[in-house]
Amino acid sequence: MNAGSPEPQEVPIDVLPPVPKDAYGTQPATQSDVPPPPFAGLRTFYHPASGVVILGLDWLIFGADVVTSFLALPLLCILSFIITFPVLYIIQTKWSKDTAGPALGKAFLGAFLVALPFPITGTMLGAAVLMLAGLPHHPVEMVKKLASQGNTPK
Q1: Rounded to whole angstroms, how far apart are CA atoms 127 and 73?
Q2: Which of 21, 78, 92, 98 has the most CB atoms at less than 10 Å from its CB?
């Protein structure tokens, strides 16, 4: 060492205290600002959106009883299955966070129900879909449930 240079000094390291959880609202600073999927806390067999898709597509395809030709009926059944299956699979994997196996099974069952050649909306099958998806049986209750989901405190 040179006689003219000062001796090295130890520099203190400042450690910051942990950031309180309420400083950034409900999310810590490390999480991204991606909103949670709809009905994220609800645990039902089907995601509510899957129930809406099953009953909605079934009602659109077979609800009006427009099918008068026996040749068009098998085509509509196959087409409704092909349309419904990927939609339900995507909803179950993305929003309900199901793994591939359960999502495939739920998508197959839902697509099979939609592909039945009669409307299931007013039957026991339709009631089962409502219960499995956690959907209320009355439209006013559904609007209240959706409105309360949007107004939950963060």
Answers
A1: 24
A2: 92
pLDDT tens per residue, range 28-53: 545 566 666 666 666 778 888 888 88
Report the C-alpha gap between 93 and 95 in whole angstroms. Answer: 6
- Name the one residue in this structure whose structure tokens are 């949007």: 150
Query: pLDDT (tens digit, 9 = 90+) per residue, 73-104?
Result: 888 899 999 999 999 999 989 888 889 999 99
For residue 119, which of 65, 78, 72 has the smallest C-alpha distance? 65
With H, G, I as helix, E, B as strand and everything else as coil, classify residue 99.
Answer: coil
0.85 exceeded by pTM: no
CA distances from 88 to 45, 56, 107, 113, 154 (A): 12, 12, 5, 12, 29
